[in-house]
Amino acid sequence: MNWQEDIRPLEWMGSDPVAMRCACCGGAPSLWEVEREGVVTKMVNCDRAELRPGAEDAPITENCPMYSPSMAFNKATRREAVGYWNLVQARLAELRAQEPA
Ligand SMILES: [Zn+2]
Q1: Domain tally for the chain?
Q2: Measured between alpha carbons, how far is residue 28 from residues 13, 20, 31, 48 in Å?
Q3: How far is the CA of 50 from the centre of ligand 1 (A)?
């Protein structure tokens, strides 16, 4: 697919709901504005772009899987984006805490 896409970082504001730390790696959450085919959405993702030890020497960056999550994370508002992010992080933590069946 060939998308026209523009992604811009946003600053957190005091009025934003608090976003949980990444359940995969503990990284800090970051807020982004995504403009795709004229539709503007907000997205929270993990800010940790280097996971592997020595990653600064890697030919490509090796990001946390939550660094650029699926389009399901693109929401109309900042609040909805944080809400969805928190739901997923809480669920990941819950699943990880469960005993294997
Ligand atoms: Zn992460």
Answers
A1: 1
A2: 15, 8, 10, 7
A3: 9
